[in-house]
Amino acid sequence: MRFKRWTGSLITRLVVFSLLLLLVVQVAGFAVVRRSIEFNARQQVARELDVAENVWARMLAQNVEKLRQSATLLASDFGFRSAINSGDTETVQSVLENHGSRIGATVTAFLDTGFKVTASSVADDKMGEASKLIAGLPAYLSQTPAGAHLTVLNGVPYQFVMVPMRAPVTIGWVLMGFPVSVDLANEMQLLLKVNVVMLTGAERERSLAVSTLPSTDADSLLRGKNQTETVLGDELVLVRHVQQASYSGQVETLLLRSAEEVLAPYRRLQLLLALINAGGLLLFAVASSWMAQRITLPLRDLLDATLRLGRGEYQTPIQHLHRQDEIGNLARSFDHMRVDIDAQQTEIRHLAYWDRLTGLPNRERFRDVLEQAIADNTASARPVAVISLDLDRFKHVNDVLGYAFGDRLLQAVAGRLQRLVTSPEDLVARRGGNEFAVLLQGADAQMAMEFTQRIARSFEVPLAFDDQTIDLSAGMGVACWPSDADSADLLLSRSEIAMYAAKRKLSGALLYDPSFDSASSQMLSLLTELRRAVEGNELRLFLQPKVSLVDGTVVAAEALVRWEHPQRGLVPPMQFIPFAEQTGFVRKLTLWMFEEAARLMGDARVQSHPLKISINLSTRDLLDPDLSVRLGSLLQRYGVPATQFCLEITESAIMDDPQRAETTLNRLSEQGFQLSIDDFGTGYSSLAYLKRLPVDELKIDKSFVMGMEKDEDDAKIVRSTIDLAHNLGLSVVAEGVENAVILERLADLSCDEAQGYHISRPLPAEAFLSWRAQRAEAPLPEA
């Protein structure tokens, strides 16, 4: 693994790449030098062979001249002349042989003045071949330069000379033939260090005549064909082929010069150059390694620094900051990055565990401290208490006085809570929004409740900012470890449950009770089941009739939803409608009711006697920008006009966001829906909104209608509301009609429509249609 890391390092790659590059350059240079040396050596050997060729020709010529002088001495010899004059052929032949052997001539002959052979030293059995040569040779020799040509006789190259014999006039010619001996070739080899090989005969039938080489090397040359160079032994030898002029047969002289002698000085120079290159390569490797280390070791240090940064270690400074090169610049950049990241991480850690607005620990920090406190007190069973606190009316402060004022309020509350905590073990934290938490170590339930009283007393002093006085109050919940919970998360959760219970009951502070938790669990389970009720067809559409106080006919009905639970039976609306509104699920309930009502409109019994159905819209429905699109889609699907529906809106739903509510109501009115203000008189809206909104109907709250029989003030409110609505061109519906007396008084006050238990309780859709059919003959119930 270490070797793999070493071979894969940058320093190794730099050194290896540099060495390879240098090695390639050196090898290329060495190859060029070697090739140049060999080329120059061949050129030099070729020049030497040129000289050798000239010298060889000169030596042949000199040898012929030497032989002519010897032949001339023989021709002038008195004894030889006497033998010739005697005319005895045998004597002449004997003299020729004696004198020829004395001067080295193997072929001698005497020719008359007509160049006819009269005597010869050639044996009788060879006389025929010699006669043929001698017959034409004198005339040929007399016309060509002496020594320029050779004659092949029995595979041996000869040099022939012909000299006249005078007494005093020419009486004949002496012809002598001398074989080219190896001595002449050895002399050539000693003189110029050039080996000589003479070959005779045609190309395929060549024979070795003269050679200064060992027999094995000469045989290899004999087998070769026109080689310009060859290897003899371990030496490179260059070969020069010289075609010799010959009277008969073919003669080729091979001049061989060893290139090794010429290359030897260059070989030593190459060896020296190789040593220099090797030394340079080694020196370059050492220098490259040193330089690469100078570069890569700082980079490795920077790599280690990045690994430390990755592990979150930001305190160790980066090395090599003093360098003034690129490495130093990089190191300084890394160090600046380290410092910046350290500052950012410090800020992130602070933001992760501390609240920026109040400077208090946040929810996560509080949880960690609580877990540590439980762990520290486990052995001694020392109690730990958690107080959760939620400010009252904080949203109203933000809405009225602005968020900046709300922030100042939270800072002031944080300061008051911190002043109440005296023990260094205790902790105050902001859990988010307008919620705070207090950790008390060593405090039981009684001590924690006493601490909540101290908080309540500190809140009795109002806060004053910029001439604005704010009264403080809060709901507080207390949970203790280990009596109420065995873990930090559960302890926090149960303190919050107690806090929300205290806010609902307006009790100030409450100690956790298991009944709080079971009620919450039951409601959570109920809401979970409600989500499945729509898909499981557990919801039922009920209708409560509205009758006309003019003729008693059933002119409309209010659509209500009932939940027929498989195990719980009929669940009262007040047990699930409020929670559906809190979670936003009420929008699905509204669409379900509208779709069921639209489907009912297709019933023949409804179409024969038109009916208007009222459906309640919640606050979340009014804030839905796509409500009109969804309702329009349902109308188109069932082919029902919008005029057959009246949408009831409470005043409180409008006041949550008047502008958005007004926009939604205008869209619904443009579609053709009738709009009604439900529970009129219980809200806080002004008549200006009533004037601006596209309302068609007012629905008087049942609290006024039910009380008008015994309370004259309620009767006045009902009378005034009816007059107001009629003056504004609106119709009036009274709900909560419980008896005939109330029904008669409403008729006397010119109320348009009425609904209540005196007329009919809410009925299932089928039961309502049957009831309306029976009611058609007797519109008004008797008192």
What does this structure look like?
This is EAL domain-containing protein. Residues 382-514 form the GGDEF domain. Residues 293-346 form the HAMP domain. Residues 523-776 form the EAL domain. Keywords: Membrane, Transmembrane, Transmembrane helix. The structure is a single chain. With 783 residues, the chain is an alpha+beta fold. The chain folds into 6 domains: 1-52 and 264-311; 76-180, Beta-Lactamase (2-Layer Sandwich), CATH 3.30.450.20; 183-258, no CATH class; 312-351, no CATH class; 354-512, Reverse transcriptase/Diguanylate cyclase domain (Alpha-Beta Plaits, 2-Layer Sandwich); 524-775, Alpha-Beta Barrel (TIM Barrel). Helices cover 54% and strands 21% of the residues. It contains 27 helices and 27 strands. The strands form 5 sheets. It has an 8-stranded mixed β-barrel with strand order 18-19-21-22-23-24-25-26, surrounded by 4 helices. A 5-stranded antiparallel beta sheet has the order 2-1-5-4-3, sandwiched between helices. α11 packs across α12 (403-420) and α12 (403-420) crosses α13. The two termini are 103 Å apart.
- Tally the helices: 27
Text of the CATH class of the largest domain: Alpha Beta
Helical content band: 40-55%
CATH architecture of the largest domain: Alpha-Beta Barrel
CATH topology of the largest domain: TIM Barrel
Q: Could you tell me the strand content as a percent range?
A: 15-25%
Taken together, the total number of domains comes to 6
Query: Overall mean pLDDT score?
Result: 80
What is the CATH homologous superfamily assignment of the largest domain? EAL domain
Which structural class do you get from the secondary structure elements? alpha+beta
Q: In terms of per-residue confidence, which ranges show pLDDT below 50 for 5 or more consecutive residues?
A: 1-7, 779-783
Radius of gyration: 67 Å
Across the major sheet, the strand order is 18-19-21-22-23-24-25-26
Shape descriptor reads elongated
End-to-end gap:
103 Å
What is the count of β-strands? 27
Largest sheet: 8 strands, mixed, barrel
